[in-house]
Write a structure and sequence with these properties.
The complex is a heterodimer of chains A (483) and B (643). Chain A has 19 helices and four strands. Chain A is an all-alpha fold and 483 residues long. In chain A, helix 4 packs antiparallel against helix 5 and helix 12 runs antiparallel to helix 13. The longest helix of chain A has 32 residues. Chain A starts with 12 loop residues before the first helix and ends with a helix. Chain B is built from 27 helices and four strands. Chain B has 643 residues and is mainly alpha-helical. Chain B is globular and about 115 Å long. The chains are: A mainly alpha (483), B mainly alpha (643). At the A-B interface, helix 6, helix 8, helix 9 and helix 11 of A face helix 26 and helix 27 of B.
Amino acid sequence: MDPHALPALLPALPELWLCGAALALLMIGVFGGDRSTRPLCYLAIAALLVTFVLLLLGPEGRTVTFSGMFVVDPFGVFTKGLVLIGAMLAIVLSLGYIRHEGMERFEFPVLIVLATVGMLLMISANDLIALYLGLEMQSLALYVIAAFRRDSLRSTEAGLKYFVLGALASGMLLYGASLVYGFTGTTSFEDIARAVSVPGATDALGTLVGLVFILAGLAFKVSAVPFHMWTPDVYEGAPTPVTALFAVAPKVAAIGLFLRVMLEPFAALAGDWQQVIVVISIASMVLGALAAIRQTSIKRLMAYSSIGHMGYALIGLAAGSAEGVRGVLIYLAIYVVMNVGTFAVILCMRRGQGMVEDITELAGLSRTHPMLALAMTVFMFSLAGVPPLAGFFGKLYVFMAAIHAELYGLAVVGVVASVVGAYYYVRIVKLMYFDAPTDAFERPIRGEMAAVLVATGVLTALFFVYPAPLLAGAATAAAALVP
Amino acid sequence: MLYAVIVLLPLGAAIIAGLFGRLIGDRGANAVTCLAVIASAVLSIIGLAESVEGGSVERVVLFTWFESGSFTATWQLRIDALTGVMLVTVSGVSALVHVYSIGYMAHDPHKPRFMAYLSLFTFAMLSLVTADNLLQLFFGWEGVGLCSYLLIGFWYRRPAANAAAIKAFIVNRIGDFGFALGIMGVFLAFGAIDFDTIFGGAPALEGKTFSFLGLELDTLTTITFLLFLGAMGKSAQIGLHTWLPDAMEGPTPVSALIHAATMVTAGVFMVARLSPLFEYAPWTLAFVTVIGATTALMAATIGLVQNDIKRVIAYSTCSQLGYMFFAAGVSAYSAAIFHLFTHAFFKALLFLGSGAVIHAMADEQDMRKMGGLYRKLPVTYAVMWIGSLALAGVPIFAGFYSKDIILEAAFASASPVSGYAFWLGIGAAVLTAFYSWRVLFMTFHGAPRASAEVMAHAHEAPATMTAPLIVLALGAVLAGALAYEPLVGTESAFWGSALLVLPEHAVLEAAHHVPFWVKAAPTVVAVIGILAAWYMYIRSPATPARLAAAHPELYRFLLNKWYFDELYEVALVRPAKFVGYWLWRGGDGRVIDGFGPDGAAATIVRLARRASALQSGYLYHYAFAMLIGIALFVTWYIYRLGL
């Protein structure tokens, strides 16, 4: 290839468009000031929507561009689609919040869009350098968003913690990448794959240690134990719509990247990294189930819940098969829907004096807001994995993959952990239906909230009626990654 | 088909009244159940006439119940003279009790439930007497047990009623355990449980033994003994009789139907039905005789001193059942069934009569608070007299015929224990007459001991209650004289093949030719008993108290019912409770719950506390955790790949 020629830009059109859109939004914001926050939010949603369309119109099959740094394949399309949906819904959910809580600053939507660009780049990374760049772009935007309420002690603390630990994780990742480069002599995923697939060609231990460091960096992003410690504090401290964003979009992107890194360049080492993934997965599921039991803040509870859920998702990765990847992708899709729905309920938890976050504030919700309680019940049962709700199928597919990969212990621990975890989900349902009601939340529930609640609730409750599109899409995406 | 209708009509009524009671209301439930059972009763009488004409065993196959390997159980009705008599007795008394209940339960809020239970009981009892194999018999046996439990505890808000219901159930369980073992033994010995096979195979097994835990046991004796255990429980024979007096906690119609006329006689019926087995087990027959005679006397002595009107009659029932059993024990099965038949009338009459008294006295059952009621309750007074005369065995009344033939059979029998049975029977007859008149005198004569208010309200029962009383009174007068010839007459071919008596055991013929003094003895002792009661409760009312004071131990012994309940409390209930408590606390509480649900939950809580404690909030802790994690993984690989 001629090094001076312009690379093919068309495969990266969604990312390029979103970059341009982010800069345009920034310009509007700079000239329009904070008054333009609201229109900017709508514009950001529109920009993400256009990106989504462009994504679907992109090339079919696998295309590589930017000198092999950037890859577009069905796996990426599926994962990016989820990221975009998550980001869009997060902005939708924040509309009411930023108005009531005095967070109307124009940088907010712009930062979300920039973070989304980073996530898309991560997913498309086909090179360690591209991986790092995408990851950092995402992270830097997210650090700022986490601390977006500069006047709030907790928010700034959350942002700072996230930043420091994130920097540490990035350092580990970089160190791992340099080790891998050192032992294989390349940063390209394809070349790494070729290098490690020949036994004895490279120093296995060196590569593996490098892989462990990369893995730690990625595990930090998906908040898997023991790299999860930031999660509860950041979830609790960050403004709630930001928490909602954290809970979905970056998680999907990070898992996508995780899958790609493990299954493309390091596929030949699957026998080695599988053990680490199994340990991380078990630790995440168990800790997510146990630590959530004693939480009083619904946001902290959701933090542990997401740790647990990432553990379940990693089961599919541990299986290492196409079935496993399909399971992970189905899991992620359902996870996004359930979490957006749950955070929509949490964002409805406001009274005259402001937001409330204590779980006990939900007591008697069935009498004050029956529909809201019903929606929350659906989400809680689904998160707990009660059939026939969507969350059950998410777990079902990863467990099936684990069984077929003969990871029986992992599947058993997963089932046991989900039983333990069911306690705190069902406890919320009990609070809502059997405890004496507290004061009603503010009425009326905003239109866009109601729409999100209805959509996610229906999807969660009735997924089993017509699961075929998701299953087929996930299968195609998985086939692209694991031939 | 006729017989299937007889059996199934009450079931249909029970289902309608039980499940749709709210829909059809009290009147609807009353009408459905009463009409169904009355129809059943009428059809039974027609059926009896038919079956007597036929003389042979008729079978109505309904469906195959079980088919498993060599084991088959068909649901079929066996109709012969014995079934015919039982059908008439059961459905007849049941119909009268149904009608009576309309009046007696008029103020109860749960009438449909009550009527449904009564009808369900009738169905179970009818399927018991029509059984053609032991399993079917067992079905009816347990069915009546269940209904008995439900009806004793009908007033479930009364703790005493619940306790009595549970007691009845548990005591019956002991007998039924034997019964079930007996059925299994029959299957083991005969390879089948239908009556024809068993009866046909019994002679061949006479004297055969089997080995159990190193003991050589006679097969038939063991089987019949186990089966008789069931009969002892159901028919309240000594040892397993303690539930019957307590069962009086149920509504009085229940006592009349279940605990006097029908269910408690199921044991007698079973022994008669299985006479082809019992006949080849002389030791069991002797045991039956001893148990029956002992019960007859024991219950009669306790009846002397009880003050609850229903309890006296309950002990009387117990005692009369003893008569029936020792009649069966000396192979006079027909006499046993004859007494069962007449007893159903006069005992139901006495219970329903006492029910009318209780009804009139605002639910008072203690005779010490009655007296002087004969003016207020003339009809009840009259029928109670008739019932008592029949019970005491005064000539021309029903009990005279049946009790006479039993005592004569006992006298004439060659059984080694027949003398014991005869003399105890005579002794019990004196006591029977005495306590019957004690009831009459204490209730209806003398000065009223109830409060003036109660006395003012005392009134004769409504027609729905008095009409059944009058019908039963007619039965109590006539049943003996009319049924004597066919049931126990020398020329009678009534029974056909329904009962088997071996030639060497045949006793009825001899019973008709006993010395005159034997024939006269029951009447004479009855009169003595009546006069003694008259002397002690009318002529000289101070005597009973003086007697009780003179023999305090004896009095307390009788008043406390021979201390059976206390004995069981110490010997069985307390140890069982102790073991149960220990298993509950230690076994279930500590082991199962401790390591199971509670333990797991507690562990989770403990772990949850630790897991949350990990989250210290300090940045360097978090970073440290990450580094530790990575160090562990790297160490793992270094170790694994062997540096």
